[in-house]
Amino acid sequence: TSQGNFEKERDLCIQLFDQWSESDQVEFVEHLISRMCHYQHGHINSYLKPMLQRDFITA
Q: Model pTM?
């Protein structure tokens, strides 16, 4: 199934991502975000907001 392919491809991408430096990871994620649509940006924003607030509170 295509879902099975997605999961294998995603896992491979994550394995590669984990080998990169933090700055390379940031550059890659910025590139991904630049290719996403407005709706996806809103979804990512909702995902990140609680993380960023928690980091700010504990800092």
A: 0.78
- Residue 54 has what pLDDT? 78
What are the extents of the domains in the chain?
2-58
Spell out the SS3 assignment of the chain.
Answer: CHHHHHHHHHHHHHHHHHHCCHHHHHHHHHHHHHCCCHHHHHHHHHHHHHHHHHHHHHC
If you search the block for the tokens 């995603």, which residue do you land on? 10
Burial 8-37 (b: 16+ CB within 10 A, else e): eeeeeeeeeeeeeeeeeeeeeeeeeeeeee
Convert the pLDDT of each residue in 3-31 to its tens digit. 789 999 999 999 999 999 999 999 999 99
